[in-house]
Design goal:
The longest helix is centred in the middle third of the chain and has 20 residues, at about 115-130. By secondary structure, the chain is α/β, with parallel strands linked by helices. It has helices at about 15-25, 40-50, 65-75, 90-100, 115-130, 155-160, 170-180, 200-210, 265-270, 295-300, 320-325, 335-345, and strands spanning about 5-10, 30-35, 50-55, 80-85, 105, 165-170, 190-195, 215-220, 230, 240-245, 245-255, 280-285, 305-310, 330-335. Helix content is about 35%, strand content about 20%. It folds into two domains: about 5-130, Response regulator (Rossmann fold, 3-Layer(aba) Sandwich); about 155-345, Rossmann fold (3-Layer(aba) Sandwich). The chain is elongated and about 60 Å long. Its main location: cytoplasm. Pfam families: CheB_methylest, Response_reg.
């Protein structure tokens, strides 16, 4: 198998050297070039024809986002954002994912060997994943801004018997947005675990809440699960639940990562059955790397949960959904644009 050819784009010579060294030492990866600004990167892409690009945001002569926007319109290719991830910078990184970047990685803390080793492993893993991912040309997301939010009528809420639980990872932020754009304020309770850094989950929920009909909130301790509300797992905690009289409320857990993730889809899928019978759930698995959620969705499926899985063609990475299909736990395997209608029909 041919090596994955990588072009490293960053204005810091130190970062370029570090990324080049990490990737060059990994089996099956070749760094074919580096660039310290987007204009040089543009020329090197033409000359070197890389398979994957690593890209910073703040760079001279052209902002990384503008370069990414041009790239995804004219020559779509897998891009991993490698930048400083902070709460302030979270909206910028989310915008990069909207434009077409596959994934993101925080630059390591200098002098922290443990953090550096984790960064190196994740960088290699994400670059290998990116080489196999499906990248779509840039398409503008058309969404209406709904204001004010209207609480669903009791009759509309009662139309749904099942709740929807959903897991996603790589490519999931955009897949979730696309799916929820087809969901009205009169929706059943929806609970989502997306693998996302802590600094992103609040911004992600807020971003969705401004453009979608349902109320979208980041999970917090005591938050009630109710019709018309979509709850996004906190980026550093598993999402679990407790019964409080007639209400079901969110509980954040900082227990150990599961499948290397916290929040974990497996944990949420297992936790929901403590407060809701499996027969009254619809479980959805969207694009993502790895197999988090597969074992739990099989347990749900065996207990009567209806399951819907994103198909391979429309997935950025068919790891998590593919794992569900492989173990025979998928009732419906559908392209992304067909999933919302199916899951809502099943929830009635």
């Amino acid at each position: 198998m041919a090596d994955v050819r990588v072009l490293v784009v960053d204005d810091s010579a130190l970062i370029r050297k570090m990324l080049t060294q990490i990737l060059s030492e990994a089996k099956g990866i070749e760094v074919v070039g580096t660039a310290h600004d987007p204009l040089i990167a543009r020329d090197k892409i033409k000359q070197l024809n890389p398979d994957v690009l690593t890209l910073d945001v703040e760079m001279p002569r052209m902002n990384g986002l503008q370069f990414l926007r041009n790239l995804m319109r004219l020559r779509p290719m897998p891009v991993i954002m490698v930048s400083t991830l902070t709460a302030v910078g979270a909206p910028v990184t989310l915008e990069a994912l909207e434009i077409g970047a596959l994934d993101y990685l925080a630059k390591p803390q200098l002098g922290n060997e443990q953090h550096f080793q984790l960064f190196a492993r994740q960088l290699v893993e994400k670059v290998r994943m990116a080489a196999t991912a499906r990248v779509q040309p840039l398409q503008k997301f058309h969404a209406l801004r709904f204001a004010p939010k209207v609480k669903p009528a009791a009759a509309a809420a009662a139309a749904y018997r099942r709740w929807i639980v959903l897991g996603a990872s790589t490519g999931g932020t955009e897949a979730i947005k696309t799916l929820l754009s087809q969901v009205s304020a009169q929706c059943p309770p929806m609970l989502i675990t997306q693998h996302i850094p802590e600094v992103f989950s609040a911004s992600f929920a807020q971003r969705l809440n401004t453009i979608l009909e349902p109320e979208v909130l980041e999970a917090s301790n005591g938050l009630e699960v109710c019709a018309g509300r979509v709850i996004i797992a906190h980026g550093s905690h598993h999402l679990t639940f407790r019964r409080d009289g007639t209400a079901i409320r969110c509980i954040l857990s900082d227990s150990a990562p599961v499948n290397r993730h916290r929040p974990s889809v497996d944990v949420m899928f297992d936790a929901i059955t403590a407060v809701k019978p499996a027969q009254e759930l619809v479980a959805v698995m969207l694009t993502g790397m790895g197999c988090d959620g597969a074992s739990a969705i099989k347990r749900l499926h065996q207990s009567g949960t209806r399951t819907v899985v994103q198909d391979e063609t429309s997935s950025v990475v068919w790891g998590m959904p593919g794992a569900v299909v492989d173990i025979g736990a998928a009732d419906h395997v559908l392209p992304l644009d067909k999933i919302a209608t199916c899951m809502l029909d099943l929830a009635k």
